[in-house]
Amino acid sequence: MARRPPTKPRKNASQTRSRATVDALVEATARILVREGFEKASTNRIAEVAGVSVGSLYQYFPSKEALVAAVIDRHNQEIMGLVRAALAEVADMPVDQAVRRLVTVAIEAHRIDPKLHRVLAEQIPRTGQLADVEAFNREVQTLVRAYLESRRKDMRRIDLDMATFICVSTIEAVAHNTVLNQAEMLSDKAMKALVDETTRMVVGYLR
Amino acid sequence: MARRPPTKPRKNASQTRSRATVDALVEATARILVREGFEKASTNRIAEVAGVSVGSLYQYFPSKEALVAAVIDRHNQEIMGLVRAALAEVADMPVDQAVRRLVTVAIEAHRIDPKLHRVLAEQIPRTGQLADVEAFNREVQTLVRAYLESRRKDMRRIDLDMATFICVSTIEAVAHNTVLNQAEMLSDKAMKALVDETTRMVVGYLR
Amino acid sequence: MARRPPTKPRKNASQTRSRATVDALVEATARILVREGFEKASTNRIAEVAGVSVGSLYQYFPSKEALVAAVIDRHNQEIMGLVRAALAEVADMPVDQAVRRLVTVAIEAHRIDPKLHRVLAEQIPRTGQLADVEAFNREVQTLVRAYLESRRKDMRRIDLDMATFICVSTIEAVAHNTVLNQAEMLSDKAMKALVDETTRMVVGYLR
Amino acid sequence: MARRPPTKPRKNASQTRSRATVDALVEATARILVREGFEKASTNRIAEVAGVSVGSLYQYFPSKEALVAAVIDRHNQEIMGLVRAALAEVADMPVDQAVRRLVTVAIEAHRIDPKLHRVLAEQIPRTGQLADVEAFNREVQTLVRAYLESRRKDMRRIDLDMATFICVSTIEAVAHNTVLNQAEMLSDKAMKALVDETTRMVVGYLR
DNA sequence: AATGAATGAGGATTCATTCAT
DNA sequence: CATGAATGAATCCTCATTCAT
């Protein structure tokens, strides 16, 4: 209590620096993936773009794969942020409003960084980090299922696991395909129609 | 504009022997993709497994990409075979039967060679042959849309393009996720329930 | 019997070429080891000196280690050639003449390529090819032991294994140290004295 | 003339703390060499095992080579301790007893740390610290030669330099090969026989 | 047409060493 | 003096592709 620690503890200096390096690397990786594609994302190139030496890259990431995994993770975290928030928000809403919200959020999530999303979906060989992606999927399933369960009385009798699976698959697919392949639907009007329709489908299904 | 390597087979393979060689190469590629993954699929390995020299490989395929594209194409043709047949078959059926048939066919299509399907979906960097995949998607959209149009009178007023988009996305996603991630749903009983539910959702949506 | 094979069977053309490449690589490796030391012997450098591409190097040798092992092997084969010949030659000689011959051969063997011998002894990390070196040692032990056994009647009662071990160790060490560290003993006169003395020691020991 | 990195410790390490650090570093190096081999002995790893930062390592040793040289040196000092003591002890003994003592000591010396001895013999590229090793050899030669000279009257007429060279080579080789390759001879009984035989050979040779 | 040896650019990774803090 | 983050030259190795035979 007597001696106050230095405002910036010594380790903090380096921690800040480390953190910055790590961030720069992940950011550089994402940038290259988006701008030049997976093939061009060599570790030397990534380090260069990050303004760091290759050595530093390997100080923080044990392999190229790990770096890409970090990019995926970061992207997934952002998406999960939206999804978790939406599901929290939705907890007390009736099914139709909730579904509409979720559909909207799904599209928003895919629009956080559509180019990155496309590259991750199309160019990244899924090898190893499958675990993470599955964990991500499981969490979404779990959260949605919990919501549906809480609303069971407003719905017809239904196998909750299957309903969750179908609804999540549907919403995800519509959002994914829209953002990746239907540039023309991204106008506000078309979007509204799309959300309406998708919501109608899912809600109609649930009750 | 980076120049991409050519993607179309170099010659028509009219002669029987040529044809056999081409087939052996495509088959070998598919086998390696399934058994050992994309990373192990080097041109030398492919030629070896095909029982041909690398030189011959390049006689028939201008690049590795072209070979992989051929595998994708072959797989897509098989799928399209099922889908086209189903849509022909379905032409005179009422919406509910038709949708049920299409859902069933979608799952069957994904089950033609699930391991290959997974590899193509997860490990192949989509670079170049996007054109083909999109053509494939467009054809499905067009065929489905034509069917829906012919049944317009049995359906509510609806934007046909959007409805097609949503339905196709949904069915494809359910089939895809089921085959790739839900091994437990592949029992006959679970399958039937899944088809029932998906059909219910889509049909409910359309009318 | 009817059709005579072509004078140079087709495969021979390439086999000759392959053989030449392999030889060039081993030779280049040896040369670099001798002239520039183990540290400078990078695979790219070796390929360059061999007048071949790195790719070719890896067509024939699975690793840098394998190449070095081949150099060691070649050197050991040359030595074993001398040693085997000497032991054959010696079979009917009395012990004193035989030992003299073996001592002489040991020195000759170390002088086949003293610089290479030094590098192999001093700079090459023994990792993996230990097996070969041990096989080599075992063969020498076996051959020498067989000779000693055949001369048992001319020798005192003695544990043959131990005697072999001691004699081989001694002769090898004297030859090795002479060639590597005693440049001044390589004059003919000094050599003769050295052989005399070593022979005297070993022969004196055996009877 | 390639410039070799410096090999001598950078400072005298007079202070206790410095001394402790230096010791820890040398000890860590030896430990890693023995336990994981030369390849794993990176400076960072050494520093880590020593519980010191790489920076500190370079405070005391100007290069990795210097560190390894220190390990070799320490090991050689231990050996020289034994050898010097033995030679002092032996000064007044007759040749047969003296030789027996020296043979015994040679084996003991190799058994001080057989694993380290093996690594130093087999894995360390001798580059630079040759000087030290040669100094070591020269000292042994000198000491032994001095002893033999003092016993000249008990020996036949003989070139002392050559006799020293042959005897030292022999004793060293027997000890070295026994400890490294003849685990089965390390039983007390076998050891005694081995010492007897080696002694017999050397003594027989000297007179 | 077929063969398979040869090519070599390019990529991932390591590690001795330095230097700002 | 100590620290450990940063450096980057250097190394091993792969693999799509070519071309002499």
List the helices and strands and how they pair.
4 copies of one chain form a homotetramer.
Chain A: H1 10-36, H2 43-50, H3 54-60, H4 64-90, H5 95-111, H6 114-122, H7 130-150, H8 160-181, H9 188-206
The structure holds a DNA duplex (21 and 21 nucleotides).
What does this molecule look like?
Chain A has 207 residues and is mainly α. The first copy, chain A, has nine helices and no strands. In chain A, helix 1 packs across helix 2, helix 4 packs parallel to helix 7 and helix 5 crosses helix 8. The longest helix of chain A has 27 residues. Chain A starts with 9 loop residues before the first helix and ends with a helix. The N terminus of chain A is likely disordered. At the C-D interface, helix 8 and helix 9 of C face helix 8 and helix 9 of D. The first copy, chain A, binds a DNA duplex (21 and 21 nucleotides) through helix 1, helix 2 and helix 3.
- The percentage helix of chain A is over 70%
Overall pLDDT metric of chain A? 90
Low-confidence stretches of chain A: 1-12
Please report the distance between the alpha carbons of the first and last residues of chain A: 62 Å
Sheet of most strands of chain A: none
**Quaternary organisation:** homotetramer
Q: How would you classify the helix and strand content of chain A by structural class?
A: mainly alpha
The number of E-state strands of chain A comes to 0
CA-based shape of chain A: elongated
Order of helices and strands of chain A: HHHHHHHHH
Name the largest protein-protein interface in this structure: C-D, 36 and 34 residues
Cα gyration radius of chain A (Å): 21 Å
Strand content of chain A: under 5%
Total helical elements of chain A: 9
